[in-house]
Amino acid sequence: MVHPSELTQIGTNSNALKITRRKTRSVRVGDLIIGSESHISTQSMCATKTQDIDATVRQIKLLQEHGADIIRVAIDSRKDVEALAEIRKQVTARLVVDLQESYKLAKSVAPYVQKIRYNPGHLYHHEKNVPVHEKVAYIVGVAREHDLALRIGVNFGSLDPALAGEEADPLEVALNSAREHSGYLEELGFTNYVISLKSSDPNDVMDINLRAAEMFPEIPLHLGVTEAGMLPMGEIKTRIAFENLLLKGIGDTVRVSLTLPHAEKYKEIEVAKAIIADVHAGRFRSVPRFEQQGLNIISCPSCSRVENEAFVELAQKVREMTQEFADRHLTIAVMGCRVNGPGETDDADLGLWCAPSHVNLKRRGELVGQFSYDEIVSRLKQEIDSLTTSS
Length: 391
Ligand code: SF4
Known about the structure:
alpha/beta; 11 helices; eight-stranded parallel β-barrel; TIM Barrel; binds iron/sulfur cluster; Sulfite Reductase Hemoprotein, domain 1; 36% helix
């Protein structure tokens, strides 16, 4: 975590800053309220395989002990739902399920959770003949029946293909996607929802949430810098975005996304709470925007969908190997699976995304090849050498 001596105190004394929260609706997630009438809540997500019930229960309890208000679990199949039913019996935490493509699983998971997150960019892949607004109506029907909250979770790494074009500005596409889906929910008379607009670039997170705060004046906002990576840089990127937004009263619930071994996942909550406490106490890093001076590594926090358990170790090896290139102006993305892997690696100079028995390597959006977990780091080094000698 960032050491207190690295923080800049603002104000004349250590009294708490008066931060006026943006006035929002109250969204109910079980017995928790998200919105300006409540504290800024913290969230995390299990990185364990959902079907590994013991490991997932352990992780949920660990996160809860560290003060997580809401804990997310990924569900992609009927077997995941069966595991969730068993997990529910063993934990008391408020759970949110992350639905990706299988929107119909909403009905099966609803009895076990307090909230459902769906990603507008993923509602196209299943049942392509069903209009998206009908899929949203289905999810809303389930949420109503079970008194659940929803999150419209827009992510720059997996934008709605119907809105995104080659030349389209991702920020505009993301905002339009959120506006479209907020419109669907409002037309259906459903108001118990929050919106998130996430990117791996903290500047984008700042810019888009400033716009979102104006565009959706009453709706609580969930903040997050996705794929912020490993400590300490993952915390620094997140701090820059959160400090700038929270200071303006924007942000009602937060998730810090860090690449961590399972046993250390609670650090996401520790870091989130530290940032919130520092903002309220008037302690800030004096960086108004993120100006990357050298190598920028983005890596996803991993979750149940990770294609190979070697992912976290791979991310750490990439960080160690690249230390000698710290002053090069390159972005390297290291991603755990195909969900955000293809999108994030398209935007990086060099990108890796994991498959079960190999790692895909891309160079500026073009696939270089597929390499084993043993050979990928040295292959990546060759590409860095070649990019930095040719530029
Ligand atoms: S990229 Fe895949 S493994 Fe990584 S957090 Fe996203 S869904 Fe999980």
